[in-house]
Structure formats: C-alpha cells, structure tokens
Amino acid sequence: MAGSVRAFLGRASDVFLSLDRKVGGKEFYAPLAVLLIAVAVTFMSRSLPARWGFILSEFDPWWHFKTASMIVERGWAGFFEFSGLVDNKSWYPTGLQVGKTFYPGVSFTLAFIYLALSSIGVNVDLIELASTLPVLYGILAVVVTFLLARYVLGTGPAISSALLMSISYAHISRTHLGWLDDEALAIPLMHAAFLTYLASINEKRSIKGSLVMGLLTGLLLGYTGATWGAHRLPVMMVFLFTALLVFMGRYRRQLLASFIPLLASTSIILLSVPKLGFSYLFEITLLSGYLSLAYVVLAEVLYRYIGSQRAVIALRGIAIGLMLLVAGLVVAEVANLPGLKFLSVVFPQLRGELVIIASVAENQAATWSTLFTDFGPTLMLVPFGIYLLIKRAGDGDIFFTLYAVLSLYFASSLVRLALPTSPIVAILAGFVLTEMLALASRNLIQPRGPRVRKTGERRFLITVPLIIMALISIYYLPQAMGNTWAFSSLDAAYTPSTITSASLPTGRNLVLNDWVRAVEWMRNNLPDNAVVAAWWDYGNWISIVANRTSLVDNTTIDSLRIAKVGYAFLSPTNVSLRIFKEMGATHVLIFVTHRPQTGAGDYPRLLYYGDESKWFWMLRIANQHARQLGLAPIDEVAVLGPNRDPTNPTEKFWTDTTLGRLIPFKPRQTTDAFGNTVTAYYYEEPRVEGYRLVFASSAPYSSLAYVYIYEITG
User: Fold this and answer.
1) Burial 622-637 (b: 16+ CB within 10 A, else e)
2) The pLDDT value given to residue 455
3) Are the C-beta atoms of residues 87 and 102 closer than 8 Å to each other?
4) In 49-137, which ranges are E strands?
5) Span 492-498, mean pLDDT?
6) Which of 324, 356, 388 is the last residue of a domain?
7) Euclidean distance between CA atoms 454 and 457, whole angstroms
8) Buried residues in 577-590 as b, exposed as e (16+ CB within 10 A)
9) Positive or negative, the Cα torsion across 187, 193, 194, 196?
C-alpha cells in the first residue's frame, strides 16, 4: 500500500514538474501572482457599493434590466421575440419599441446567464445578478487588457497596466456594482477583439490560423457592436488599420486570410441587430470595411504580379483614389454617415444642434480638471508612451498609437468616453513606468568601463520614477487615509447608488431615501392607469422602478414630446393643464434640491441639482421645437433675466410658470451674518390651481432632496 502511494505521488510530482517547465517556472508564477492581486483589487474596489445593497445605479442600467426581465419572462423564446418587444409603461400612449431602441448585448448576456443558471437548478435574484455583473466585467477587462498589453509590449508593461487599470477612476466609475451599462461589457469584448486581430495578422501565423483568428475577431467585434453604440470606433479601427498596414508596405497574406472571415462575421452580426437593420450596410462604418477588403485584395494581386516595390507605390496612389471615392459616396448620399450624436463626438461644434444631448453632464466636452480626475497622474505619462511606441514601430505599436490618439481625442470631446480611453491610458502609463524602472534598476549598479555615468545623472534616473510612482500612489489613496488633494477612484466607488442618494453628489456615506420613498409610494398608491408627467431624466425610475406609466424617459427617442413637456412646465398653469391633459397625464412629478439653514449665520438655499436648474434645458429644448409643435416660443429673457443666469431667474419664473409655482421653496430677500443682502429660499405650502399636492418625499427642511407629486385636478 505504501509503495502504491509513493508511486502515485511520484507520478503526480513528475506531472507538476513537467507542467512547471512548460509554463516557464518563476517567469510564469510571478506575473500570475501580480495579476491575481490586480484582480483582487478590481473586485474589492468595485464591490464597495454593496454596503448599500444590490441595486442598480444611474438610469440606463434600469432599461437593460427591464429588457432582460422581459426576455426572462418569455424564457429562451424571449431572445427570438426581442425585435417585437414593446413596453407600454413608457412614452405614453405609443409605448416604446424595445427591440428597435436598444442594443441587445447587455440584456441578452444578463438574461442568458440567468436562464442558464436556472436551467441547472441555480436560482439567483435577477436584480442581484444584474448588479454584480459589472464587477465581473471589470475583472474580465483587467485580465484581457493584461493579455493584450503582454502580447504587444511584454510581461512587465502588462503587469503595470493591469495594476493601474484595477484602480483607474475612469474605469471604476462605470464598472462598479450596479452600473449595468454598455461600456462595462463592451471594453473586455473590444480588447479581446484587438488581441485576436493582432494575433491573426502575425507574420509567423499560418494561413489557416489567420482564418480562424480572423473569424474569432469578427465574432468579438460583432458582439461589441450588438452591445455598444460606440462600436464604430473599434470596428473602423480594425478595418482602417488593415488598410494602413498595406499603405505602409507591410502587406502579407495573413492580412487577407484574416480580414475575409473577420468582415463577413462582423457584418452578419451587425446587420442582425434590430436597431441597426439592413440599412446599416450602407453606413460608412461597414462600407469602410468593404473598401478595405478591396484594397487588401488589390494588394495581393499587385504583390503577386508586379513585385513588392512597385506594388507599394501603386497601392499608395490607389489609396488616394479610394478616399476620394468615399468622399464622393458621402456627397452623393450613397454612403450614410453615423447619426448627428456620433458625428458630434468627432466635431463637437455640432453639439449645439442637439440640445437634449448637450443637457446631460456626461455629454459635455471634457476639461483639464475632468481629464485629471478621470486619469490622474498617469495622464502625464501618455505622451511619453506614444513616443516609445512610435520609436518601436511594430504593428502592435502602431495600432496602440492609433488607439491612443483617437481615444484621447474622443475623451476630450465627450466626458462619457473617458471609460473606453482608460485601458489605453493604463497600458501606456504602465509601459512608461516599466521602462523607467528598468532604466533605474540598471543604474543602481555602478557601471564599469569608460562610459561611467555621472553621480547626478544616475540619481536623476533613479529618483524620477520613484517620484512618479509616489504621486500615483498618493492620488489613489482614499480621502479617509489622508488624501486631501484628489477625489480618488476608491472614493468614487464607495458611494451609494444614484437612486439611494437622490441623484446628488452627496459624498460616500450620505443616503437620501427621497427617491426610494417616491417610487415606492407611486407603486403602492397610484392607480395602474396613472400617467406621470415629469422631466425625462426621471422617466426610467417612474416606468421601471415605480412601475407606473411615464410620458417621456431617458431614451430621448422623441424630441418633440420632450419639448412639449418642457413647454408645459414653463407655461402658465392654464396652458400646462391643457397640454398635460392632451398628453394623457394624470399626475405631475417634480424634483427639487434644497439645503436648510445649518447655523445662525447661514440661510436656506437651493442646491441646483434638480428641476430648479434643469428648467433652463426645458426652456432651450422647448423653444428649439416650439414652432414644430405649433406653439409660440417662450420669451427667454423674461424668465432668465438679462444675465441669462438659470440659478437666478426673474420673478416671472416664480409667478407665471407652472414649474416655478409647483416648486414650494420660494425666494425671499434676507441678510446674512455679514450684513449682505442675499436671496434665501423658504418653504411655502404650494397652492396651484388645477394641481393638488398628494405626495412629498420629506418634510420641509429635513432633507437635501425632495420629490413632489401633484394630481391634476383642473
């Protein structure tokens, strides 16, 4: 018996030793250990909101959850019925065509995991699963980014990038617990597609291998496109980078072998997405792929028959012709450009035409302050990283350079695009840090020979990376640990969900249950046929969380209906009553933020996170579409005043507009502790003809946020 045990242990030992030799010994285990640390940090940092419960954050995640719920109710058949799903609780009276409004990737993934677990007897709560998935997507993104960086730059930069990404403010802000949105899933899919693409075009890969890897890339890009509206960036990057390699004289047969299955599988999946449809075939996104394919095929022919040198010259001339062809197709309206929403990212000047889009904070142009908040001190390393990539000039290096330049431009154009930029910032910063530390380590040992570095130069080479690492480390410390000069990524994660903090940036421990009480009251007290009129920001919470019908919501699919609601709020009560009744509303909801008097020298004031500031956008959107609605434009100066300051409207706003009269905190002139005349806001019981207050989320001066619901009686 003992001999058998020794023999078994001996064979097991031989197996493990053989495996150890194959994976590389310590060269494998050390990076794996650091990667596991990055994964652990990713999990712990993004799970911090669990303190306040498993609940979704912000607004769009609720729609992904609702869509998944509709699929789950129908079982596996729900995936095939997706294109015909209609939600009648939103956009009264027409309802919302779910299949033609949303990209299905997030909802399909959630529903598939839930149904798969249920089919094997594992019962989970759908809302808890939905809340947890973004954390898992964040972990997956860190691992895939590590593999991508390792493939292009090596193990050292990959380890550094994984660690930096695990604590990236921009990445944590949209992958923490509860943030079930497009980008969280799209980032790991996009990076996996980049990894398989670069592997497929490797000169050392067989043609058969390129075909297989190209097909896998196409499936991943298609999945990304079915998940994320901004899929146009990674899809076109792959298409145009392939053409760029040919233009640079780097054609090889692996490009053609990879690109054919890649383009075919990507096209099939994208054309199958109901939101995109067959018309997407003529959008510039896919057309660029077909033109790139023609370019690569021409390269194969020319390289074969006229030789590589002549082929390169000919292909560069053909590239100019293809660009002129694309311009001609766009002018002739044969090729469709992406919607104005996407074009406004490339050309921010166009955003003035999209008032609804411009009204959202995350759709504003970035500032140096927001960029530094999102990326921290790692941002200053990016230019050096781009320089090192250009100096190396491999295929992967050029791809990363293109990725970095485009991503940083788009992130500066739109605050929301900091998330898809965060991985490449982490990769480049990790690359630079690794190079600096490698240089510093070489100078820790006194060099011998005639080229001995001066002492000052050696100290500089050793000290600089240490200082940079110290700055990065201090930046990521939470404020509770002495960080007083930056709002770190851990602080961003350690906050309650939007609905439990009443949509206020209240800090990490302050919970305001006003919206929770409001949706619970609506769900339990409003009749099933009630229709609630509110500004579109709150539509998802009304129709999904409260399960009551709303006029407009966060999908913003009908600008005219949104404008009509805004017009009603800024009209006299007799006009607003007529408009709301025409639209079928039975109740009106408003949201107000207000800070009570906190001391003898203080005075109550509005905080301007609710409708007391959003009315400015109601006014702009209403006037943009007033004539299309057959309504006279509202006199902006009359309510804004000559200074056009939405935080200080005229008396007409408070006395003549419906919203001004429904807000119960009214302005009064008072004196502060220094004897200055200031405007304070005190509660007055609202008495508005045709509107009866039926719910207040908190008593006056007892909260920072208030939800008021009025019944239309006039």
Assistant:
1) bbbbbeeeebeebeee
2) 53
3) no
4) 86-87, 96-97
5) 83
6) 324
7) 5
8) bebbeebebbbbbb
9) positive
Residue ranges making up the domain that contains 269: 207-324
Summarised one tens digit per residue, pLDDT across range 591-640 is 999 999 887 678 899 999 999 999 999 999 999 999 999 999 999 999 98
**pLDDT tens digit string along 83-129?**
999 999 999 999 999 989 999 999 999 999 999 999 999 999 999 99
pLDDT surpassing 70 at residue 340? no
Tell me the C-alpha distance between 416 and 421, whole Å.
10
Q: Which amino acid is at 237?
A: M
Paired residues of 28 in beta bridges: none
DSSP per residue, 169-192: HHHHTTTSTT---HHHHHHHHHHH
- H or E segment to which residue 297 belongs: helix 284-305
Single out the residue of 38, 141, 44 nearest to residue 423, CA to CA.
Answer: 141
Which secondary structure element, helix H or strand E, spans residue 163, and what is its range?
helix 155-166
Say if residues 232 and 285 touch (Cβ distance below 8 Å): yes
DSSP, residue by residue, 83-98: GG-EETTSSTTT-EEG
List, in order, residues 6 or more apart from 306 with CB less than 8 Å away.
314
CB 211 within 8 A of CB 253: no
561-593 pLDDT tens trace? 999 999 999 999 999 999 999 999 999 999 999
**Is there a domain that residue 138 lies in?**
no
In a domain, 46, yes or no: no
Helix (H, G, I), strand (E, B) or coil at 671: strand
| Sign of the alpha-carbon torsion through 241, 246, 252, 256 | positive
Number of structural domains in the chain: 2
333 part of a folded domain: no
Domain-terminating residue out of 324, 353, 379? 324
Position 372 in a domain: no
